[in-house]
Amino acid sequence: MKNALYAQAGGPSAVINASAAGVIRACRRSGQIDTVFGAHFGVLGALNENLIDTSPFDDATLELLKATPAAAFGACRHVLHDLADDPREYQRLIDVFAAHDIAYFFYNGGGGSAHACQAIAQASRRLGYPIVAVHVPKTIDNDLLHTDCSPGFGSAAKYVATSIREASIDLASMSHTSSKVFILETMGRYAGWLVGACGLATEHPNDGPHLLLFPEIPFDETQFLHQVKETVERVGYCAIAVAEGLRDQTGNTLHATGQKDAAGDRQLGGVAPLLAHMVTQQLGYKCHWAVADYLQRAARHLASATDVAQAYAVGEAAVAMALDGRHGLMPAIRRLSDVPYRWDIVGVPLDDIIQGDRFVPREFISASGLHLSEAGRRYLAPLIAGEDAPLFKHGLPQYFRLPHDRVPKKLPPFQSPLTSRVQCQV
Amino acid sequence: MKNALYAQAGGPSAVINASAAGVIRACRRSGQIDTVFGAHFGVLGALNENLIDTSPFDDATLELLKATPAAAFGACRHVLHDLADDPREYQRLIDVFAAHDIAYFFYNGGGGSAHACQAIAQASRRLGYPIVAVHVPKTIDNDLLHTDCSPGFGSAAKYVATSIREASIDLASMSHTSSKVFILETMGRYAGWLVGACGLATEHPNDGPHLLLFPEIPFDETQFLHQVKETVERVGYCAIAVAEGLRDQTGNTLHATGQKDAAGDRQLGGVAPLLAHMVTQQLGYKCHWAVADYLQRAARHLASATDVAQAYAVGEAAVAMALDGRHGLMPAIRRLSDVPYRWDIVGVPLDDIIQGDRFVPREFISASGLHLSEAGRRYLAPLIAGEDAPLFKHGLPQYFRLPHDRVPKKLPPFQSPLTSRVQCQV
Fold first, then answer.
1. Pick the CATH number of A2-152+301-356+386-421 from 3.30.2350.10, 3.90.960.10, 3.40.50.450, 3.20.20.60
2. Which residues are annotated as site, described as Important for catalytic activity (chains A, B) (predicted)?
3. Hey, where are the domains in chain B?
4. A-B interface: how many C-beta pairs under 8 angstroms?
5. Quick check: B339 contacting A, CB < 8 Å?
6. Smallest CA–CA separation between B324 and chain A, in Å?
């Protein structure tokens, strides 16, 4: 029996480890895979032969892993060269696979790692050690093509929708004599799925959030200020969610523009404080703002049960595809119906996945451009459904800790010729 | 039988409505109080005779109220004059009490409303309509004297401790190639209880948060940067929690100083982005930051069961004190033991409450000034214990909505001579 390697890539999510648990359990159940190794810090862990043996993980440990946010095995941002340009990293990966008898590679990440997964699979064929590589989808940005949603998104969406609901009623309760406006900044540099999900908190017409600012809709300061004023005068207060990547009419992010307007690097805030400043200066309303940052993607305490189930299922499905020899695929979620939400999993060729990103379509956004449409609501609602709380101890969620033991190395150290290319992006 | 008036004051919390439910249920159970009215938007609602009749609230509604964050009846910030200076607002309150046959007044708030509660009680005696006024404690800042803790604090504490734990492992998982530092800004302008509570997330020595910046400890930039660098070199990353009110050696908040350094009002961020900027400029580490703002005080989805129980209990106890004719009191929580946490409720004279604020004592802070001491941990740990989730529907917590009906007014409108004194503070 051959072994498998599981690696995590890119920005973490609240449920990526549920996919890890799905992969590990499915491998064990198959009877066709011996050991599942985890790469410590993603593909860099594979290159450096930093492997973790998951065999000692008992069922309780796998349950804990499943309920743990962030990339428990460690992830990285690292871009592999094209094979034709420089084969050395691919050769090293093949050497590590061969040294540890690894025939299956599961790469859990977003669009970039789908590309890398495909490149590694193809290189392994050219270099004479064909491995079966399957990509396991993950991204809180929900911008992967050809899947109903991306595991990780639903939980972040549930967190931001809950947060803006709670903050909106907080704002409402003090609006008579205190702040009139609250702004929550969500992640989303290009695609506005998370800011859109905030709109699910609006159940009745006057509920917050009253305005959603999508990166797909160019920001119109005049319209925005008018809407804020109209909402405060009508409802008494105005709750707003804004995507970090909000852009002006010329396509520049407001954040970047703000930085330029202020004295160089003195402008330290995100887009939320910038809008708060605008509201206070132009309308005279006292304004509060929050930037959730990592909190939204790590909020396993408020995970969507649907999201956890899907993350686990794509992990299991990846193993089934691999054992069928169906490499170069990504298990994708296919929606069968909205209400009740029914879905299954299909294999999508990675060549399709890596063709492009997926933005919020105009028909999911209301006519004004400032809230969800009914179609958008229908799409998003099932993705945040259900609760899946982690174990709490002493009042705090208990999370998995990676053991310190590493698999003994069999190869000499690898001096990556490409170390300088390790990307330290956001 | 006489009626009672319940009013909410100041910044909301996740559990102030649990106190409301405790007051309403205890009044009903007593058989000695007829109707419990709620004041819409606090003492201003009382002045303007905007009253809500809680009699139609059935048990399910009261359960929903108990599990709803923010001030469900609406709160305000409004400072009453001294009676000697201007008796008109007091006279109006007495008129409203008399018109609606109100003999009991329950005022749910922090230090300011304890003062107001006492003033109203004393004025009612001087003006010949003696009411029984009891203050019900509430503040997420935990800065009330003579009570083990303030209802509302435990839930905010549980939220920030959970958030920094989740964000810390997110940071850890990407630290190999991405951000090395994460900073969470908590509320706390003068007292560092919430930033201290973040320290509960540190279970093992290398766990985040690694540094806590208390407003009680003057900020030392050199020591801070040294500690960040040392932590990143030792652990691989550094997670930090900072109180919004962090002060420099001269007692100025860093936030205010930052505003002065930058071009006037161009500095829009809080203290977290300011420190992030410092870390990036001085140490070259990529840094992420979050400002939780209202999210932390409204996070009923992550309430502390201990906090909910205490909030409910002080509401009930306030009614018991009122019925005993023990006015001018606040039901306070008395700690009987740390482990297991046992507490009861005692009546504390309001004159004692309003004497001062309560800061984190030096012995609750580690020798370095940058983390909790064991004593601090022992004090804080029980306050976040236990979970008390609200009802979820369609993936989101369901919260109480105030009915639109108001009690018919019996008095002419009140033109407050003091309207200009309504305070629009944070």
1. 3.40.50.450
2. 138
3. 2-152+302-354+386-421, 153-298
4. 258
5. no
6. 32
